[in-house]
């Protein structure tokens, strides 16, 4: 982090100088896009990535605005707010559409452009300072728009790594399987799954991960600490915002470890979608809505470089400052977050009362009931005997093996 800050200062010297489901016509008012003020940015744009409203995006989707105020696509369906679910909470169809859109972006070269864009700000206001959270909010918004221009039903899911940290070895999580982010070989190269053999911006023919070599994943205590932090200086900080966002970067390792290459890996975007969710939870809990758009840390040269100041250009995005990344329009108009997966004695399914999720299970044996990622074949399942912890299998002698899955435990609440 000191190296990033030092390089940013040198670069400046050289210059010399909910969270709720998507809205559709007929849905309750609280599920619809919220109105924006007339002087709000992004209501008209030449580039879809600069849009901040569905109305602005409508012509880029070749849609038509109707009298009811909604944009209707050529198939007759309304363009809805993106609904960001946890990666493992998506239906199989939603996940496959998401993977297909990502692969199309990779095929047409737009994915590389995003990766190089992130690489270009590795020593600027996008990392290690107050500009970090606003910059990445804008960046992943643009990626989500790129995905939706390919498939309007797609939203950028979030990777809740807390679900994996409970496992004896998080590397055994179903998320690192061919169904999700893919598996690595003995050299750390991603060799199966939807992102297998993706070339990288530095010329390698596969994404590289080291998994668990250093760092760690988020835990519930960290998230609770952030959500309950009243001081904005400790959230939009000049050191490590959110008390450790880079740590999962280090845990995934490989390309994800450093800013110059982290956007090679699609898991980067899902991780930052989760970071953005944590940020939004904090905003809604600790700030009034009229305060959220202007509250920023003091512009202190003694604490960080000028790239992080509120008025600084959010490069490389035209006409944006760091403070613009605090706009309410992101979640008022463009996307909402599904709640994080939870379970209880009454609803032990990590989904709903009707649907048993295939990729998560409810752990009643270790503290309060909480959702945990299922474990892939061969993974360590010690401590979860008798529970539905193994994907399409069961825990035998501490390892997940093929076999009938245990029944879901039901509890009678008295």
Write the layout of secondary structure elements.
Blueprint: H1 2-14, H2 54-57, E1 64-65, E2 71-72, E3 82-84, H3 92-108, H4 110-120, H5 132-150, H6 162-165, H7 220-227, H8 246-252, H9 267-286, H10 289-292, H11 329-334, E4 335-337, E5 360-363, E6 370-373, E7 393-396, E8 399-402
Parallel strand pairs: 3-4
Antiparallel strand pairs: 1-2, 5-6, 7-8
Helix pairs in contact: 3-5, 5-9
* Number of beta strands: 8
Query: What is the chain-wise order of helices and strands?
Result: HHEEEHHHHHHHHHEEEEE
Fraction of residues in β-strands: 5-15%
Number of helices: 11
Low-confidence stretches: 11-22
Overall form? globular
Q: How does CATH name the architecture of the largest domain?
A: Orthogonal Bundle
Summed over residues and divided by their number, the pLDDT gives a mean of 87
CATH evolutionary superfamily of the largest domain: Di-copper center containing domain from catechol oxidase
What is the third-level CATH name, the topology of the largest domain?
Answer: di-copper center containing domain from catechol oxidase
Which structural class do you get from the secondary structure elements? Answer: mainly alpha
For the record, what CATH class of the largest domain applies?
Mainly Alpha
Assign a percent range to the helix content: 25-40%
Oligomer: single chain
> For the CA atoms, what is the radius of gyration?
21 Å
Distance between the termini: 52 Å
The strands making up the biggest β-sheet line up spatially as 1-2
The total domain count is 2
Instruction: Please describe the biggest sheet, giving its number of strands, its sense, and whether it closes into a barrel.
Output: 2 strands, antiparallel
GO molecular function, one term: metal ion binding
Domain Tyrosinase copper-binding: 265-276
Keywords: Copper, Metal-binding
Pfam family, one: Tyrosinase
